[in-house]
Each structure stands twice: as structure tokens, then as C-alpha cells.
Amino acid sequence: MSSQGQIVADPAPGIEAEHHQVAALCWRLHGRHAEVLLITSRDTGRWIVPKGWPMEGKTAAATAAQEAWEEAGVKGAVAEQSLGSFVYPKTYRDADPRICMVEVFPLRVEELAHRYPERRQRRRKWFAAAKAARKVAEPELRALILSLAETPPGPPQAPAPAEALPDPALDLAPLPSDQTA
Fold first, then answer.
1. Which residues pair with residue 124 across a beta bridge?
2. Which of 30, 102, 114, 96 is CA-nearest to residue 67?
3. Contact of 138 with 86, CB cutoff 8 Å
4. 74-78 and 84-92: which strand pairing?
5. In angstroms, how far is CA 127 from the centroid of its own chain?
6. Cβ(17)–Cβ(87) under 8 Å?
7. Where are the domains of the chain?
8. Of all helices (H) and strands (E), which one includes residue 87?
9. Which long-range contacts (CB under 8 A, 24 or more apart) does 87-92 make?
10. Are 135 and 38 spatial neighbours (Cβ–Cβ below 8 Å)?
């Protein structure tokens, strides 16, 4: 943990992260317990959080919110302060895996869209936080999910800029409560 209470991942000794990404840890309260929205990766189908490369002209938090929209159809309030980070080996079809460091931002889900850019490429599902932690492969991401479950963040300190959120004219629906695992 860092001095600010964040979970900070370090690659194994002697290994340096070659790439940096940002991710959204999408969550909601179900009663008094946090639930986490996971999505499947496009290549292997494993459970992950929405993540992507930094976007020019956007803050890291705004980029995380944009990735949550594109990959999971999420609209909500993202915190400007990250929860921490995790590392994973980014695989490429034509090259060796590269170590990638991912900074994670909590995003409280307010709405889920029926139509969103990657809806035909991924599955999404709500999990109780403890079960979501068991579903992901990365130990540091597991710890971030469990830390969120213990103390869900309050309202974000400052919302991401409006350009990071989806067009309100798109097809949005209230959060379904019957898709919890």
C-alpha cells in the first residue's frame, strides 16, 4: 500500500512496466453491500474491468469513464483519485507479452445502456464484491475490489469532465437488480 492508502502494484523485481493504462472499477450498492460490474475480455473471455489506453486531452479518470461507457455501457460518477493499480501481461498476437501497469478509478454506476459500442463483443455481469474478486486473475485487482467492498467510496471529489460521459440521447436504462451473481 502507498502512504495514501492506495494499493500500488509493482512488477516483479527486475521487470519494468512497459505500458500504462487506466481502468474503471464500476460499482453500486445493493442494500448495504457493494457489487462490482465485470466484463469479459474480447480475446480470452476472462472477467476483467473496463480499461484502455490514455486519451489525449482527457484526464486519467475521464478516460476510465470513457472506457466504461464503450466496453460496458456504464454511465455514472467517476472519482478523480485512483484506488491504486495492478499489473498484467498484455498479450499481442504478433509479439511477446508486455508488462502493463493499470491505474484504477472507482466509478459509481448510475445507469446501464442497452446499446453501447462494444455490446456485441463482451458480456457484462454484476457480482457481489467478494465473488468479483475471486473472478479476476490479477492479485492486486482482487485486493482493490475487496478494499472497495470494505469501504465503498462516497461521492467523487470532482466528477470527470462531461465529454467523458456518453451522449444522454443514447438508449439508457435504470440499473437492473436481477442480474446479480
1. 39
2. 102
3. yes
4. unpaired
5. 13
6. yes
7. 19-153
8. strand 84-92
9. 87/9, 87/10, 87/11, 87/17, 87/138, 87/140, 88/137, 88/138, 90/19, 91/43
10. yes
The phi, psi pair for 139, rounded to 5°, reads -60, -40
One-letter identity of residue 112: L
- 87 near 101, Cβ under 8 Å? yes
CATH of domain 19-153: 3.90.79.10
Grid cell digits, residue 111: 445507469
The amino acid at 26: C
pLDDT per residue of the chain (181 residues) written in tens, 0 to 9: 444 455 555 555 555 678 999 999 999 999 889 999 999 999 889 999 999 999 999 999 999 999 999 999 999 999 999 999 999 988 877 878 888 999 999 999 999 999 999 999 999 999 999 999 999 999 999 999 999 888 776 654 444 444 445 544 444 555 555 455 5
